[in-house]
Amino acid sequence: MKPVKSLVPLAKWLLRIALVLFIIARYINNLLEFNFNSIPFILAALLFIFGFLLIIGGFMRKASFTVVSGLAIFIISVFQIIGALQSGHFEAFTLLFLQGAIGFYFMSRGNLG
């Protein structure tokens, strides 16, 4: 069976939306604390910003927003993965790995479809 290549743009948009919804669901409590001295708050705020820039980048002709947002999400995810591995949270590791993989995908592919 051959892949349906006409559905690739829809799949990319579903990835963008799923990543933003995941970020909202996972980090909304950290963001509601509103503590600028807290590292979890800063990471959550950065993920929110770059998640929404990833959506905005999908509407632009140039892939700058998409690539920068993917890179930022990937770097933040790697930082969080290191923390999860040090504390022994395997479940958190798997979720963060998925988040980082989607960020890496958009960093490497941009808006190409």
Essential attributes:
single chain, 113 residues, mainly alpha, globular
- Shape assignment: globular
Question: Which regions are unreliable across 5 or more consecutive residues at pLDDT < 50?
Answer: none
- Per DSSP E runs of 2 or more residues, the count of β-strands stands at 0
In terms of DSSP E residues, the strand content is: under 5%
Describe this structure in words.
The structure is a single chain. This protein is an all-alpha fold. Helix content is 80%, strand content 0%. It has four helices and no strands. The longest helix has 26 residues, at 8-33. The radius of gyration is 15 Å and the shape is globular. The two termini are 21 Å apart.
Summarize the structure.
The chain is mostly helical and 113 residues long.
Task: Describe the secondary-structure layout.
Layout: H1 8-33, H2 39-58, H3 64-87, H4 90-109
Helix pairs in contact: 1-2, 2-3, 3-4
